[in-house]
Amino acid sequence: MIGNAFTLKQIEALVTVANLGGFRRAAEHLNTTQPNISSRIAGLEETLGHVLMLRHAGSVRMTARGEAVLAAARRILAEAETLIDVAERPDLVEGRLRLGVTELVACTWLHRYLRALKDGWPSLSVELTVDLSRVLDRDLAAGALDLTIQTAPFATDTTGVIDLGQAPYVWLAAPSAAAGLPDRPDLISLAAEPILTHARDTEAFAQLSAQAAKLGVPAARLVPSSSMASCLQMVVDGLGVALLPQPIAARHIAAGELVALDTGWLPAPLSLAARFHEGRAAPHVAQAARLALTMVG
Prior knowledge:
The chain has 297 residues and is of the alpha/beta class. It has 13 helices and 12 strands. Helix 1 (8-20) packs across helix 4 and helix 6 (110-120) packs across helix 13.
């Protein structure tokens, strides 16, 4: 028996403060107050008889003893979730999953995924962010997100990556606009209409711009947008042609609202991955990443 034992809440507070780099962010993540987090850490330090972290103007630095305790604390939390798994009680997993996804996911299988997360972990609260992949990349690196489902290229490395496959691009037009085009239109003939596509700082836009410049298509004919959903609706309304990931347009193509055009040229497919900090994230984060694979399989 361990006398004057520490608690899982104290262990959780230590790991969360270390992960997020501060007491305030840890309190927000654990849905409690900063004084409460401070009290848990102080109680743990008193019980163990060691200073575990040093506070410096809103930031923290682990002591040498604190680093050793932190490694053990991560193992304790992981084993606690293993116990929950063995007992088949996922409803006991509480807290927040800070999930970041790109618009491609939000417009295709996100709702199914959120339902699956709710079924798998009924007491887990999902905090959702939908943004550009480069923003999600930055927030994951900063510890502001637990799990991202985003598209390559990735500006930063992470230890947990699950490949979710690729999404090919497709040229799209409303049926009325497609009727006036050649059977296999080239980029020059497509540029008779505004070409709606990805945001300016994406790989797809860079490749499209290079192809347009090669063929002498004026750059003004390319209309980048940070909202693929808006591009899609504009094409449905006959306001241009579009170059977009095929999954986002699949339903409209099947319904006859859009026509997929064979142009002979497409940018490289989008590569999609679920990314997290393996070894630092709670076990259910890795499980949620693997769950995403069943959405695209």
